[in-house]
Amino acid sequence: MVAVVTPDGFCLYANAGLETMIGQSRRSLVKSSLLDWFREPAQLHEAIQAVSRNEFATRRFEGALRRSVVGFTDPLPVHVIVSQTEPSHQRILVEMLEIEQQTRQDREERAMGQAQITKELIRNLAHEIKNPLGGIRGAAQLLAMDLPSPELTEYTQVIIHEADRLQTLVDRLLAPHRKPHVIGDVNIHEVCERVRALVLAEHSRGLSVERDYDASLPEFRGDREQLIQALLNIVHNACQALNERIEQGDARIVLRTRVARQVTIGKQRYRLALELHVEDNGPGIPDSLKERIFYPLVSGREGGSGLGLTLAQTFVQQHQGTIECDSEPGRTVFKILIPLP
C-alpha cells in the first residue's frame, strides 16, 4: 500500500492496494488527509514533518490503519515507511506493509531459500548414491550366480532388494528435476475430482471427501499432472493422519477452492490467485514437526519416506505458488496458493 503526501499529510496519490485495504476510492482518498486514516495520526505526522525537513531520509514505525471495508472494522496493524522522493521534499512517500503479511513474506522467503538449498543438496547426494548402487547390485547378481548353495543366494537377494529400494528412493528425489513440464490449460476442479476419485477408491469406507468449490475460478496455464501429484501427496498425508478416524468411520477431508485477491507470494504481488484448501479432522501435526514438514526425509509416521510434501512444495513452486500449513488438534489445513492470470 503506497501513498504520496504533502508535508502536512494531504494525499496526492494512493495506489490500488491502499484503496482496496481502506475501502475508499482513490478519488476520495486524494481529497483527504492520510492522517485521518491512522488510529494515532500524531506519529505519522511527526515522521512526515521530520522527513520533509530533511532531518531523516527515512523513518519507520508501527501503526494502525483505519478501514471502512464491510466486515473489517478493526484497525489494520501496519509497518510504515516514510521516505523522501525529491530534493524539494514537498512530496513524501508513505509505504504501509501489513505486519502479518510482512511476517508471512519473510517466512516464505526463508522457506523458498531453504527449499532451494535443500534441493541442490539432495540432488547432489542422490547422484553420489546412484553410482555405487549400480555397482553393489551388479556385484550381488554376479555373486548369486557363483554361489553353490541356494540358501546363500537368499543373502544376495536381500542385497539386490535393498539396492532396488534405495534406487527407487533416489529416483523420487531426482524426479522433480527430470520431469518435463507439460503446460496446458488447467481446471483446478478437474484436478480435485481426479484426486478425490483416487482417494475414495482406496478408502471406500470410513472417509468422506467433501467438495466446497468456487465455480467462478478461471482456468490457468500449468502442468496438470504435477498439480494432481502435488494435491494427491497432501491428501494422502491427510489420509494417513486419519487412520484411526477412518477405522471409527468419521474421517473427513474437505477440498475447498476460492479466489484470493491482492496476494503477495514471495516478493511478487498478484491481483488474483487460486486458494485451494485441504482440510482434515485428524490429530494435527506435532509441534516438533511443524517447522520442518516440507523438508525432505522428514516424516511423522513409521516407514514414511518424508518426500510427499517436499515434492508437493516443489511442484507448486514451479507454478510460482506456495503451500502454507495451519494445524491444531482436530483440524489441519494445507493451503495452496497459485497466481491466476
UniProtKB/TrEMBL annotation:
<dbReference type="InterPro" id="IPR005467">
    <property type="entry name" value="His_kinase_dom"/>
</dbReference>
<dbReference type="InterPro" id="IPR003594">
    <property type="entry name" value="HATPase_dom"/>
</dbReference>
<keyword id="KW-0902">Two-component regulatory system</keyword>
<protein>
    <recommendedName>
        <fullName>histidine kinase</fullName>
        <ecNumber>2.7.13.3</ecNumber>
    </recommendedName>
</protein>
<keyword id="KW-0418">Kinase</keyword>
<dbReference type="Pfam" id="PF02518">
    <property type="entry name" value="HATPase_c"/>
</dbReference>
<keyword id="KW-0808">Transferase</keyword>
<dbReference type="Pfam" id="PF00512">
    <property type="entry name" value="HisKA"/>
</dbReference>
<keyword id="KW-0597">Phosphoprotein</keyword>
<dbReference type="InterPro" id="IPR036890">
    <property type="entry name" value="HATPase_C_sf"/>
</dbReference>
<keyword id="KW-0547">Nucleotide-binding</keyword>
<keyword id="KW-0067">ATP-binding</keyword>
<dbReference type="InterPro" id="IPR036097">
    <property type="entry name" value="HisK_dim/P_sf"/>
</dbReference>
<feature type="domain" description="Histidine kinase">
    <location>
        <begin position="124"/>
        <end position="341"/>
    </location>
</feature>
<dbReference type="InterPro" id="IPR004358">
    <property type="entry name" value="Sig_transdc_His_kin-like_C"/>
</dbReference>
<dbReference type="InterPro" id="IPR003661">
    <property type="entry name" value="HisK_dim/P_dom"/>
</dbReference>
